[in-house]
Amino acid sequence: MYYDRAGAALTPAQIAALPSKKLAVGTCTRPLRGVVDLHVDGCMPLPNAPHAAVHTLSGTRCAPLGFRNRHLLPLFLASPGMSQARQRLIRGGARLDLPLTLDDQIIEPRPLSEAEWRLDFIPWDFPPLTPEEIRRLGEEETRAALAMFSPQT
């Protein structure tokens, strides 16, 4: 089920009948691909994808990515270094983000000690990155860095 800005439930048919252009963002909205004008996949999508999609649908240019933005050049110059630093950490096996799974499942926590019950957070060890994950995460990092400056979704 999908909801409008007032919280009223909408069916895909009701969404299709809306008179305006329609954008669906996220993996959870894949069933709306044939209903909306533009769908941005991902959970979460690449950083600039929803923003770029709004410009695509509205036929407008993105002012922050224009030459009048005095922060654009420093951002542009700093981004490759940040991406390279993340790539080095990933290649070294560091898990920078939570592993994303779209499985609908309950993961039971391990038994907690008395001291852990009093903590504000519970440390949770994640498995080391596999070679396949390192390759995939490296590719995703490159895509994310390039998407920041991409006018397309």
Describe this structure in words.
With 153 residues, the chain is mainly α. The protein has a domain at 67-97 and 128-153. The protein is 37% helix and 7% strand. The protein has five helices and four strands. It has helices at 12-16, 49-58, 72-91, 114-117, 131-147, and strands spanning 2-3, 9-10, 23-25, 38-40. The strands form two sheets. It has a two-stranded antiparallel ribbon. The chain is extended. The two termini are 25 Å apart.
Describe what is shown at a glance.
Helices cover 37% and strands 7% of the residues. It has helices at 12-16, 49-58, 72-91, 114-117, 131-147; strands at 2-3, 9-10, 23-25, 38-40.
List the helices and strands and how they pair.
Elements lengths: L1 E2 L5 E2 L1 H5 L6 E3 L12 E3 L8 H10 L13 H20 L22 H4 L13 H17 L6
Parallel strand pairs: 3-4
Antiparallel strand pairs: 1-2
